[in-house]
């Protein structure tokens, strides 16, 4: 038996924990640059606000419907997610963190009624962390994901599914006919494993609901579409094809990119940005104990500013030896940037991606006759990076950084707009809530 635990409207719910006045009001969370809606409360969804819809298109709802917009506060959301995941992990021997707001739990061998355990889990997360969740149980991960969808939808849209399936939905308690009825009510595009491009193909083949997909020929769909689709059908039929992965494989690519608050035209400003991005991906690279063999850098102008000249160059720079050293990765990123930068363009986005990753514990150090010798031996480099990470872990992100990534002014022109960001209540002492008598 598998369970999927999902926080309802994660980003908005995190904001509401510390600002109860937002409960019952339409709320959206905006992207890093306050450009698009990346999270919506149910009330905002009822107003017709779409996911990823540009803010300027719905800004009029502030006046006409009381819509409240907040800048993304990812530091807060990440910390709240960690608290929720830690609490959920207590209820099952194996946990797979699927995203910032979702995790799978493997209840194999766990005694007791899963639905009762799910209700207890939900109440405990709400009481201790303040986040509302939905829990879905099924004999496969795909069915658990579907059960979670039913639990959320039945709670938000009365009449869509039987009310007893709201909040905590356990497919094991349903008869075969009742489960078929649930699948008949669910559009095929709502199932995990069916993407936006795949759903129209299935509908064209006469597969419009999840029940249609369950009754389809898995092998035939696998040949026509993909092995993933074949596994999805078999999982809907009750045959487990996917296990809870409590030790997920290391990422094969690591990317950090962002739009700027204002266009950037000068190379020193871009070097500052790219150095900061390279520092972040280097930290993530070390967290998964990997080493990188090439650095990919891109910069681009805005395709929506037609009055500006367009430029979107990229460059990939191979490294002489695999490394996770921030200094080497920043130097490579800056070198690649210098090769693609052209003056006179108004750049609005940049990114750094580490590619060709390998296990850092087994990475082979090679000699390069044409490169300057390293000032530190491999063990010294690792110790230096470990010290750097420890200091930033203790004193805050970027407490210690390379000079090229340090902001030259308190308010850099390229800084993302976050005019509506709430305080980072749980991670910054100077922003913690103060209760006064």
Summarize this structure briefly.
This protein is of the alpha+beta class. It has helices at 10-18, 42-46, 55-58, 61-65, 74-88, 114-128, 141-156, 176-185, 198-204, 210-214, 218-224, 227-236, 267-287, 326-340, 378-395, and strands at residues 2-7, 27-30, 37-40, 68-71, 94-99, 102-106, 133-138, 168-170, 254-264, 290-301, 314-323, 347-359.
Structural commentary:
- The protein is α+β, with helices and mostly antiparallel strands and 437 residues long.
- It has helices at 10-18, 42-46, 55-58, 61-65, 74-88, 114-128, 141-156, 176-185, 198-204, 210-214, 218-224, 227-236, 267-287, 326-340, 378-395, and strands spanning 2-7, 27-30, 37-40, 68-71, 94-99, 102-106, 133-138, 168-170, 254-264, 290-301, 314-323, 347-359.
- The strands form 3 sheets. Strands 5-6-1-7-8 form a 5-stranded mixed beta sheet. It has a 4-stranded antiparallel beta sheet with strand order 9-12-10-11, covered by helices on one side.
- A hairpin with a 6-residue loop joins β2 and β3 (37-40).
- It starts with a strand and ends in a 42-residue tail after the last helix.
- The mean pLDDT is 87.
